[in-house]
């Protein structure tokens, strides 16, 4: 197994994350495509690990998709692009008429 890419396991959580989204909301990562979801109480952890071991080729493909996603969307340039878009969208909601003139 050395030299293999890791498969990402994401534990269910009551917290909202932009990576895995919220119930009914958009998410950056797709379960089964970029990561393996694990129950909050971890009751399915062993069975999911066994399944990954049994389906090694599928696990490798999932890990490769995750790595490609991370290299693209977690790069320095992409983060700057995202921040630029976020600041510009936020600026559209600012009422400039109340700004003080110094």
TrEMBL record:
Keyword terms: Coiled coil
- Please state what the protein is called: KDEL motif-containing protein 1
Which residues are in the Glycosyl transferase CAP10 domain? 2-96
What organism is listed for this UniProt entry? Answer: Symbiodinium microadriaticum
Q: Name one Pfam family in it.
A: Glyco_transf_90
Ranges in a coiled coil:
45-72
Superkingdom of origin organism: Eukaryota
């Amino acid at each position: 197994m050395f030299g293999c890419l890791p498969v990402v396991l994401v534990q269910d959580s009551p917290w909202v994350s932009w990576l895995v989204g919220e119930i009914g909301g958009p998410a950056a990562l797709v379960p089964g495509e970029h990561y393996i979801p694990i129950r909050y109480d971890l009751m399915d952890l062993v069975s999911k690990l066994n399944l990954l071991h049994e389906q090694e080729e599928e696990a490798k493909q999932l890990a490769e998709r995750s790595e490609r996603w991370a290299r693209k969307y977690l790069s320095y340039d992409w983060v700057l692009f995202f921040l630029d878009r976020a600041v510009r969208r936020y600026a559209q909601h600012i009422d400039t008429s109340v700004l003080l003139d110094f």
